[in-house]
Specification:
The chain is globular. It is built from twelve helices and no strands. Helix 2 packs parallel to helix 12. The protein has about 300 residues and is mainly α.
Length: about 300
């Protein structure tokens, strides 16, 4: 079993302190250096706009200052991980934004706004006016993840909307499990991590998603240098929903991950923007490296793979 050495940890720490965004610095400080949760939320607030949504390159591949559902779900991931309740102002504002951007005709949230093309962005974040043809009609990504927030922050949303969309989500996965793709699965796993999800919904999802995990997660180590769904992207802690199903692959992926730290101390993204917005990509790559490095250190620590 490979462990991250203290020397390698020190290099990662130095990269974070020098290059990571303030948000990732505060998350690292809380996880490893007794930093406060309030400092995380203060750093996170800089990404939130007056309409309650998050923007301002919260998701580094979309450099848009305007709010987007994409960036708002990323903000809510942080808020939920660090136990911000329904009474927290950042949560309340974010949920108001989601309620204001819900498309009642299609029963979904368009993941990015029409203004997305006005700012540098990854090629896959170009805006399309055709909801039915965009990201699977948004029926899984981002809807499944947002259904989780409707449960965790139930006080802030109408009961009938939460019930209706939960049923719609279950119906969709029942009919289209074979069509679930990588980023859809991320959203379903985040839904499964919802603390207030009804047990019957959780059981149904686990039954439907088990075969999807087998189909989508790359368990062959020879594939992990490529842009594939690696085990640690689905299982980030021992109590993750599919930790038992992927136990052997997770152990091997941990060995792999500890040996893939770059010379600068970071773990870097496996993707790029190609020829799109080269200057903006240079900054996005640094931002992503901070995000990924903090995440990898958290995972390595949770699984007891940090030496000393």
């Amino acid at each position: 079993m490979k462990k991250l050495t203290q020397e390698a940890y020190a290099k990662a720490r130095a990269f974070i302190h020098e290059f990571a965004r303030p948000l990732e610095k505060e998350i690292f400080a809380h996880e490893f250096e007794d930093g406060s949760v309030d400092a995380i939320f203060e750093a996170l607030a800089s990404f939130q706009n007056g309409d309650g949504g998050f923007g301002n390159a919260m998701e580094p591949d979309l450099r848009l200052p305007d709010s987007s559902v994409l960036a708002t779900t990323v903000g809510l991931q942080v808020l939920r991980e660090y136990n911000a309740g329904a009474g927290h102002p950042l949560v309340q504002s974010a949920m108001r934004y989601l309620m204001s951007t819900y498309d009642t005709e299609y029963g979904v949230w368009p993941i990015i706004p029409p203004t997305a093309d006005s700012a540098p962005h990854a090629p896959w974040w170009g805006y399309s006016h055709d909801i039915a043809d965009s990201w699977g009609g948004f029926l899984a990504n981002p809807r499944a993840e947002i259904v989780g927030y409707l449960h965790d922050y139930a006080e802030l949303v109408p009961d009938d909307l939460r019930a209706r969309l939960t049923d719609a989500m279950l119906t969709h996965i029942e009919r289209h499990a074979d069509g679930i793709q990588m980023f859809d699965l991320h959203c379903y796993v985040r839904l499964l991590e919802t603390k207030r999800l009804p047990p019957t919904v959780r059981t149904s999802l686990m039954d439907k998603l088990g075969p999807v995990v087998d189909r989508l997660v790359a368990t062959d180590a020879s594939e992990w240098e490529k842009y594939v769904l690696a085990p640690l992207e689905i299982v980030d802690r021992p109590e993750s929903p599919f930790a038992a199903q992927l136990a052997d692959a997770v152990a091997e992926n941990l060995d792999f991950a500890t040996s893939r730290q770059a010379e600068n101390g970071a773990w870097e993204p496996k993707w790029s923007w190609g020829d799109s917005f080269p200057e903006a990509w240079a900054q996005a790559k640094v931002d992503w490296s901070g995000v990924i490095t903090v995440r990898m250190l958290k995972i390595i620590s949770r699984f007891g793979r940090l030496e000393g």
